[in-house]
Amino acid sequence: MLARAFDEGGNGVSKNEKAARYYYRAAAYNGSPMAQFRLGLYFASGQAGLQDDKIAAYWFGKAANAGVPDAQLLLGESYYFGRGNVQDPAQAFGWFHKAAMGGNVPASVYLAFSYRYGMGTKRDNRLAVHWFRNAANHWNPQAQFQLAMCYAKGVGASKDIVKAYMWATLASRNGYQNATELCDVLENQKLINDKAIREAKQLADVFTRTNSMTVSASQFHDVVENIHLYENPPQTNSVQ
Length: 240
Hints:
Blueprint (H helix, E strand, L loop, with lengths): L1 H7 L8 H13 L3 H13 L7 H13 L3 H13 L7 H13 L3 H13 L7 H12 L4 H13 L7 H13 L3 H12 L5 H17 L12 H4 L14
Helix pairs in contact: 1-2, 2-3, 3-4, 4-5, 5-6, 6-7, 7-8, 8-9, 9-10, 10-11, 10-12
């Protein structure tokens, strides 16, 4: 696609945002779902001098209805946060679900929080754990931390301090500070002994060896930055 060539540059083509926007627009009006998604990103981000959440949501909607999971995620966000659409948690949930079913990892995190706190759907802690685990298995650090909290508290799954420490260890290694604090809490409150810590770390090592980190940076989206507006997280200073 010529638009992408101008958008990314290389192979003898100089990067040109204005030209990229022109060709994305043309392709979008001709029905290209990926061009519609890219054009939505231009309007959402203000790239190349444009910023209009309503127009962004319009193009995300076009691409989302055509089955583009990244567009479904962003359309879900637009409904949840009221960016370019009327705030509607139920609509947000529906699009997060479609995106998650399409393999979008950040959407799995949003979907898990939707079930965990009953936002746009009926509260269901077991389904929350399912979707946290789905994202955690794809190396999303926030999902790994939330899964650890679920095991630590016995929310949506049987209480299991070894699994809690394992997932917190993985999230901590993945740079998630809250997970490091959770490990400290479990140790300081004597909720886990040295033998169990060794077991948990061994499980984390096995997970690391058997689950390659294949998720691209874009799959993390802005979920770590944005999700704090969406969640009401449990406090990490106690897991009692």
